[in-house]
Amino acid sequence: MAQTEKFVLNMGPQHPSTHGVLQVQVELDGENIIGAKPVMGYLHRGIEKLMESRTYQQCVPFTDRLDYVSAMNNNLGFCMAVEKLAGIEVPERAQYIRTICCELNRIASHHVFIGSLTNDLGSATGMIYAFRDREKILDLFNIICGARMTCHYIRIGGVIADAQDEFIRKTEEFIDYVPQMLDEYDRLFTGNEIFQKRMQGTSVISQEDALRFGMSGPNIRASGIPYDIRKIDKYGVYGDLDFDIPVGRTGDNWDRYMIRIGEIAESAKIIRQCLDRMPDGPFMAKVPKVLKPAKGDVYHRVENTRGELGFYIVSDGTTKPYRVHIHRPSFINLQALDHMCRGMVLADSVTAFATIDPLMGEVDC
Amino acid sequence: MHNGILYLAGQSLKELMLPVIGSELIVNLIMTLICIVILFLLVATSALVFTLGERKVCAWIQVRIGPNRVGPWGLLQSTADMLKLLTKEDIIPHGIDRWLWVLSPILIFIPAAMVYALFPFDDGVIFADVNIGLFLLIAISSQSVLPFLMGGYASNSKYAMLGGMRTVAQMLSYEIPMVIALMGIVMITGSLKMSAIVEAQSEVWFIFLQPIAFFIFLVTALVESNRPPFNMVEGESEIIAGPFTEYTGMRWALFFLAEFANLLSIGILTTTLFLGGWQGPDFLPTQLWFWIKAFLMVIVYQWIGWTFPRTRMDTILSFGWKVLLPLALVNLLLTGFGIYIFRWLL
């Protein structure tokens, strides 16, 4: 009788499909996965600690480096937390510009999701198409603030520069292009038999499990729980806007993919509303050069591309935060990897990892 | 009776040499040597063409430009690639099975080049027109399983091992539907001889008589030559590069030489078996028809490969055994009935 032996395969930190530096120790029985253990910490830079020795304004660029493919959302989270702490009122125009930028960045981040997912499924073509469209958004950021990825555009009290006419015109052009873009994705992979076969019914996370893992963002919505901070907290101008939250049913890889596609369309809807309603006025509140919030603490959360991004800031009344803790959605979502991989085959581990869509900058912080 | 350009060229060369050398045996020997050299040149050229061609086709599908820096239109890209690979350090990892590891890239090249001896390139131009041609061809090409396993086993790497095992599983299980699908052609032709198969298509191509077999062959050829979407061997997202993971420089290049040789040979094979080989309307020379068809098929294979995501290993195996094999058997049965009815009508 033939005997088979279990063995451990170290995927990463140098591996083509761990986008970022994550190591996954996959325990295998032939091609079947018995367990997957994510080992993180390869990108740890101690951002929380670094923030303690910087002034509040100097902390903002660090947030760019958390989730570097959706930097705007991170800027927003930190700035809103500080504004809440210091009691700064943000002008309405700034709020609309912030929302436009955040939603644009959400689309760009989902492009990276689609790109890396299709690349992991072995179709480099999909990646090129997604990144081609992402480039359009990065060009928009280039126009509005001069930076493309780590923008540092949203500042405490507003935004650093006004939205020019060119930005608004080109954003409108992009929003008009979105349906055509999604149609192309549908033809290229959503309708593809091999793609569907690999995604449907694999790595299922049930509602209970999603809650148990404390997941958030598109991953929990794919499991059928309409949990979106934009709807719950209605921060910024989200309360005035009309948009839906795509919700999945089964919580498999396919749902997690379709949620993202749905969110791109919804984000486009939000941006169009913002462009229509954007009032004139100042884009920056009067914020003192030396910001000294009163003693106390604050927690503020926003809906990052990957889920609930929360900043807990403790102030001791000086110019620097006493303590910052960042609730990173990728870190928490990544816990589910082992659960998702069990009972699947080796090729599915890559798909599972891609559909959780963790970003190592955020996981390691 | 034969009137292809290559055939006439060969004959006139023979006639030129005969009075000079005198002995017909030596002339035949020299001709054989020339043929071997030409075949190897062909295989080498295919690699040269496809290092650029593959990247260009891939780039067109991916809305990119592709290589365009080295030489006009990137034409010298293959040369640049070769130079780069030659100057690479030859890393021999620790703990390998030295002999198997060294032999694997060499052995993989032999069946890939050997099958070219059995292709009818033109009217009367076939290196070895043996009467078991198709059988021999499949027998030779199935030898390419072993080097993959050797490389995978000898590399002392888990990725390579997994890749090697995958290759064996997928190649062995797809050989059976392929052979059974091709049996339909053999039944119609009544011969395994490659030249006879081409001549049998002088009136109607086998793609019209054997559409099911064509479909099965299209899929199995992709699997056998490890083209995407069935390139499980180097499923780069999970097992990095499979059996090739630990190879560098020219050793690695040999694997790819074999892969490109295989790509061209499945293009030629499809042309020969289903698209009438070198035959075509008279306004173009037969030789040209052959290469047009072969390269069109190669582009079709590349097109399929660069559009679809990779399939999963278990899906490939279950598809092969549960769908393709019964389909091939049904095709065999239908062909048998078809031939019977055809004869009865006559």
H-E order of chain B: HHHHHHHHHHHHHH
Largest sheet of chain A: 3 strands, antiparallel
**Which geometry of chain B do the CA atoms define?**
globular
Trace the largest sheet of chain A across and list its strands. 1-2-3
* Biggest pleated sheet of chain B: none
Instruction: Determine Rg of chain A (CA atoms, Å).
Output: 21 Å
Q: How many domains comprise the coordinates of chain B?
A: 1
What share of the residues of chain B lie within helices? 55-70%
Estimated structural class of chain B: mainly alpha
CATH fold topology of chain A: Cytochrome-c3 Hydrogenase, chain B
Please report the number of helical segments of chain B.
14
CATH architectural grouping of chain A: Orthogonal Bundle
| Helix and strand composition category of chain A | alpha+beta
Level-1 CATH class name of chain A: Mainly Alpha
Short summary of the structure?
With 365 residues, chain A is of the alpha+beta class.
Description:
The complex is a heterodimer of chains A (365) and B (346). In chain A, α4 runs antiparallel to α5 (124-145). Chain A has one domain: Cytochrome-c3 Hydrogenase, chain B (Orthogonal Bundle), CATH 1.10.645. Chain A has helices at 47-51, 56-64, 71-86, 92-120, 124-145, 165-190, 193-199, 207-212, 218-222, 229-232, 253-277, 329-333, 337-341, 346-356, 360-364, and strands spanning 7-11, 23-29, 32-39, 154-155, 158-159, 296-304, 307-315, 321-327. Helix content of chain A is 49%, strand content 13%. Chain A contains 15 helices and 8 strands. With 365 residues, chain A is of the alpha+beta class. In chain A, the strands form 3 sheets. A 3-stranded antiparallel sheet of chain A has the order 1-2-3. Chain A has a 3-stranded antiparallel sheet with strand order 6-7-8. Chain B has one domain. In chain B, α1 (5-21) packs antiparallel against α2 (24-61), α2 crosses α12 and α3 packs across α12 (249-274). Helices cover 70% and strands 0% of the residues of chain B. With 346 residues, chain B is an all-alpha fold. Chain B has helices spanning 5-21, 24-61, 77-86, 98-114, 133-141, 145-154, 158-189, 194-199, 206-209, 211-224, 236-239, 249-274, 286-307, 313-345.
